[in-house]
Amino acid sequence: MSALELDTRERYDSGLVVGRRGAVAVVLFDRPEKGNAFTTATKADLTRLWPALDADPDVRVIVIGSTSERFFCTGRDVTEVATQEGSWATDAAWGRAETLTARHARIWTPTICAVEGKAVGAGLHFVVDADIVVAGEGATFLDTHVNVGAVGAIENMGLALKAGLGNALYLTLLGRSASFTAERAYALGLVQEVVPAGTALARAMTLAETIAANSPSAVRRSLEAVWSLAYMGGYDQAIAYGWMLVRRQWDHPDAVEGPRAFTERRPPRWMPR
Q1: Cβ neighbour number for residue 259 with a 10 Å cutoff
Q2: Which 3 state secondary structure label does DSSP give 68?
Q3: pLDDT of 187 above 90
Q4: Which of 108, 208, 122, 106 is nearest to 159 (CA)?
Q5: CA dist list (Å): 136 to 130, 175, 182, 197
Q6: Which residue, 26, 80, 152, 246, is the most exposed by fewest CB within 10 angstroms?
Q7: Superfamily of domain 8-212
Q8: pTM over 0.85
Q9: At a CB cut-off of 8 Å and minimum separation 6, what does 31 contact?
Q10: Which residue ranges make up each domain of the chain?
Q11: How far is the C-alpha of 261 from the C-alpha of 133, rounded, in Å?
């Protein structure tokens, strides 16, 4: 996994590797000795990272994965919590706490999650909040909040949204005694592609580069429209919001360039984001 060829690569002390290949930004967990569990410092770096990537006009897609084939992310570093006398996080209202994922930060740069090995507990945040999930054949998904005295809530609600209420409750209540294989997660809709073990990140990059070739404005607004179904109070409200986004795109130059390029049988020249 760590052999992925990138144009740029930087390792953060908090256990992240952040790089770029073309229009695709890459964020990798890199604490294999700790199961790629994240710390307070990791959360702080991610909180700063998402809006920075979203503001970069050269970034069209984000891929999040890991440098290990044994672990994707095993959630919060419980060892750190224990040494901080049970401090899981800053006690702040939702929206002012750390923004672990791009969806928490309410940004509309598409995010693809590449899962190899174990995705556990709060590591599921990145899975349920991704727009597309690619899993290696050996990937497993489980929730251990109740095993360590924590509430399974935000990511567990994401599980319910993507995999169904009953399946979310099954993982949530049974803790480490229950898990989903990659194939089971695919059958439930939590995962969109299952690939040979060790190739999830490469496949995610291919998908990201495909998405990056499309109209940036149309991609972002389409993404916002589809996710609005989860955020809005009902189907009719979400449809009305989606229709507004469709009309807004009509005034964008890409809405003219796309049909023109198709007619002229040439690659489209999209407006920079």
Answers
A1: 10
A2: coil
A3: yes
A4: 122
A5: 16, 22, 7, 4
A6: 246
A7: 2-enoyl-CoA Hydratase; Chain A, domain 1 (3.90.226.10)
A8: yes
A9: 15, 37, 38
A10: 8-212, 216-264
A11: 31
